[in-house]
Structures are given as C-alpha cells and as structure tokens.
C-alpha cells in the first residue's frame, strides 16, 4: 500500500514538473523587466492603503494590539506562504498556477476568476475616486467636477485608455508608473510619521507615544464589543495587510523571480508594517478617535499638524492629495497589468479561447486581455456613475469583492496544508500552523462580511443578497470553466 502511494505521489510530482516546464516555455517570450527595487516599490504601492491608518485610529490606544494581532495571525503567514510557493513555482500567473498544480484545473480557474472579478470591481471606481480627490486638491472652484457625470465619464474613459496604453506598452514603461507611486507613497508616510516628532520638539504637542500599548476587552461578557473587536481585527488583516501574492502573477516578467519576489516580500514586509503602525500613531497624535476622517485621514492630520506651524494648510493638503492620486493611479496600473495576465494563462490551458493569449507583435503583452479588462472596469464604473437607485447594489458588490478576495486566500493557505506533497513542497510544522492561522482568519472575514454586525433592516435579507451575489458570479465562473472543458474535448476529438 505504501509503495503504491509513493508511486502515485511520484507520478503526480512528475506531472507537476512537466506542467511547470511548459509554463516556463510559454513565458520565455516575455521581457524580464522587474528587478528587486521595482518589486519592493510595487509591493508597497499595492499593500499600503491610506484609509487604514484612519480605520485603526478609531480604536484609540488599542490600535497597536490589533495591528500586532493581525500581523502575527495573517500578515506573517501570508508572507511565509507566498515566499515558499513562489520559490518552488515562480510561474507567470502566480496563485492561479499554484492552485492549479496543487489541486486541479477547476480550483485554479475559480481562483483566477475570483481574483479577476475582485480586481475589476476595485478598478471600476478609479475615475470617480480620482476626480473626487482632484476636485478637493484644486480647491472649491473645482468641486463641480465631482458632481458632473459628463466630466467623470469623459475623465474615466481617458484615464482607463491611458492605463491600458501603458499596460500594452509593457512593464518597461509600467514599472516607472508603479515606482513613482511607491516613492510618492513613501514620502507621504515619512511626512506623516515625522510630523509628531517635529511638533513635539517645537512644543506644539505635549507628548507622543508612538508604541503605546493596551489590551482591549476580549471577553465574552460584552458580546457586542467582542463582535466589534472581531470585525475590526478581520478588516485590518484582510483589508489592510493583503497583496503579497499579487505581484507573483507577473513572475514570468521578473528577473530571477524565484529569488527576487521572495526577497521583495522580506524587504517590504517590515516597512509596510511600520508604515501602518506608526502612521496610525501619528493620526492619534493630532486627532481624537471619534474625530478621525475615515476618507482622508492623512490629509486631515497633515492639515492640522502643519497648521500649527503657520503653514498654509490648504496647500499642504492639496500636495498630499495629489501625491495620493499618483499612488492610486499606480495601484490601478498594477491591477490592470496583473489582472490581464489571468485570462492569458487560462487561455494557455485551453480553458479560455486563444483570443486571450494573443500577444502584441512588438511589446509581447496580452493586448486583447488588457483591452477586455480595461473595458470591463470602465463599463462597470460608468454604470455606478449612472447610479439610478444602485447604492445598495454597489454596497453588495463591494462586500462581495471582499468575499472573492478572501476566498482566494483560503485556497492559498490550503496548499501547504493539503497539497504540499503533490507539488514537492517541504512544509515544516511552523508553516502548516501559519497556513492554518491565515486560513482561519480568511474564513472569519468571510463570515463577518456575510453576517453584518452593524444595524441593517434585515440581517437575513442582507446575508441572502450577499450570498446570492457571490453565488451568481461564481456560477458564471463555473460555466466558463465548463465551456472551456467542452472546447478541450472537441479539440481532442478533432485531433
């Protein structure tokens, strides 16, 4: 019996290795543009969302406890699993390939589908978000821009067109957009983190304790508070501390990806953690928890802090908003570039039509897939702008996007737990424990998203609608997979 099991595992591993060789052969045509510095800056742009320092600041003195809990139970496990899987399988398509080789084609396809839908939903709001922020940066005279559907529509079309053009041109250009966004974000956070120290030295604030630590009430004696704490914890983990796996989608376009993607995670992880923790402390140095602006916490803090020194606060806020717009454009460029690779690699496996695999003759980028991603995001965004009674639908789609992303993490963490032998991964006990922790946090996030802890008219109706949205999208993905399987069978019969 043992010999049979050993032979089966050996045959499975050989099949995985043959598939890896085929993927690497298909990836050989790509230009290897991304070096270590590019990858580190891309990780920072993708992971660090600026709203989360405001969300965490709402916790007051308990913020450090929750950041550390999220880092220990999710962030570090995510980094460890991504490093191990990428070192073993540095393949174009990233998590799609890991899930496919670890489990089967269907799991891989559904992971790619959920990632694709999640990114489209995130990208759909780019035009409205940039125009709104731009109107604030330019002053009261520009507020009309955020209220004009015609202007937002035209701006969205131009912006998505430019980003699609950059993506078609390839990472030789795109990486500079991503790098610029990373530099702008780092400069913004350096200013945010340094401001309390300057204010303390200048006598503008009396005290500042960036690493103040307190333990919140985690007992079940107050169920409402316990549920609130769980919800905040899951949001910081799955909302703020995610994204290391996304860059691995571009592994076939990286220089020495087996080494550099893992190194980029190791370098970026502590920088990102410090940005979040110290950035939240800086918010609390100038703003009480109940006064935090959840939409623009960084602009709020810099406005107050520089205002104490007599600096024209409006100019500071405008510069910060412009820098954050630059980061947002870079983030959307990353989404578009990586998301376009998912249909391409599914096309390599004949699960989507060959149309998705066609590369630009000169730049060797999946031009058809890029155009489709841009068009889908633009179309969904314009529907949101039209917005006739669509607020509830938009909220449901936003929550569903979180479920789609968290579902891909459940699969990611399941690979070291259930598929390590199949792919030849030596998963020590600590990696299995870390994977179990990450999977449980992901499942907790899904449960808290489906079961609202805030006041709604009907909890059952809210959960049913959200589950319905997630099911409809995933059934559509399953139907696409079934159609791909039929094409495979017909092609096999014809040959």
UniProtKB/TrEMBL annotation:
Keywords: Cell membrane, Membrane, Transmembrane, Transmembrane helix
Membrane topology reported for the UniProt record: Multi-pass membrane protein
Locations listed in the record: Cell membrane
TM helices/strands, residue ranges: 34-53, 65-85, 106-131, 151-171, 183-202, 232-252, 264-287, 307-336, 367-390, 402-420, 429-454, 460-483
GO cellular component, as recorded: plasma membrane
Gene Ontology molecular function, alphabetical: transmembrane transporter activity
Name of the featured protein: APC family permease
Organism listed in the record: Eiseniibacteriota bacterium
């Amino acid at each position: 019996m043992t010999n049979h099991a050993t032979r089966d595992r050996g045959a499975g591993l050989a099949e995985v290795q043959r598939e890896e060789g085929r993927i690497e052969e298909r990836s050989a045509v790509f230009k290897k543009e991304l070096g270590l510095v590019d990858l580190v800056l891309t990780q920072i742009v993708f992971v660090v969302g600026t709203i989360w320092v405001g969300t965490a600041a709402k916790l007051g003195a308990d913020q450090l406890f929750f950041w550390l809990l999220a880092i220990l139970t999710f962030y570090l496990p995510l980094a460890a699993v991504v490093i191990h899987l990428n070192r073993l399988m540095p393949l174009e398509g990233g998590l799609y390939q890991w899930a496919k080789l670890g489990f089967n084609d269907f799991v891989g396809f559904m992971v790619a589908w959920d990632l694709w839908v999640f990114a489209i939903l995130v990208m759909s709001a780019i035009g409205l978000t940039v125009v709104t922020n731009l109107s604030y940066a330019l002053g009261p005279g520009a507020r009309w821009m955020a209220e004009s559907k015609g202007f937002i529509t035209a701006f969205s079309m131009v912006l998505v067109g430019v980003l699609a053009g950059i993506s078609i041109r390839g990472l030789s250009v795109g990486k500079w957009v991503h790098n610029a966004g990373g530099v702008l974000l780092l400069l913004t956070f350096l200013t945010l983190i340094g401001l309390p120290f300057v204010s303390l030295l200048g006598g503008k604030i009396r005290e500042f304790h960036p690493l103040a630590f307190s333990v919140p009430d985690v007992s079940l004696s107050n169920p409402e508070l316990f549920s609130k704490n769980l919800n905040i914890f899951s949001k910081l983990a799955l909302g703020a501390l995610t994204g290391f796996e996304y860059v691995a989608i571009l592994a076939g376009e990286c220089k020495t990806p087996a080494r550099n993607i893992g190194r980029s995670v190791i370098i970026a992880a502590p920088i990102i953690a410090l940005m979040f923790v110290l950035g939240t402390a800086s918010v609390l140095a100038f703003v009480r928890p109940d006064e935090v602006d959840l939409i623009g916490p960084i602009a709020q803090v810099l406005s107050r802090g520089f205002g104490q020194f007599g600096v024209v606060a409006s100019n500071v806020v405008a510069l910060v908003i412009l820098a954050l717009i630059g980061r947002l454009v870079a983030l959307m460029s990353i989404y578009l570039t990586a998301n376009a690779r998912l249909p391409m690699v599914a096309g390599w496996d004949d699960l989507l039509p060959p149309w998705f695999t066609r590369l630009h003759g000169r730049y060797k980028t999946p031009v058809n897939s890029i155009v489709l991603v841009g068009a889908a995001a633009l179309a969904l965004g314009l529907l949101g702008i039209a917005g006739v009674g669509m607020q509830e639908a938009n909220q449901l789609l936003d929550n569903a996007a979180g479920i789609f992303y968290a579902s891909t993490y459940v699969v990611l963490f399941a690979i070291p737990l259930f598929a390590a032998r199949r792919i030849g991964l030596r998963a020590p006990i600590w990696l299995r424990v870390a994977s179990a922790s990450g999977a449980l946090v992901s499942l907790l996030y899904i449960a808290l998203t489906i079961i609202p802890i805030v006041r709604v008219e009907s909890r059952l109706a809210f959960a049913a609608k959200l589950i319905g949205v997630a099911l409809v999208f995933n059934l559509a993905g399953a139907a696409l997979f079934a159609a791909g399987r039929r094409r495979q069978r017909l092609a096999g019969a014809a040959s």
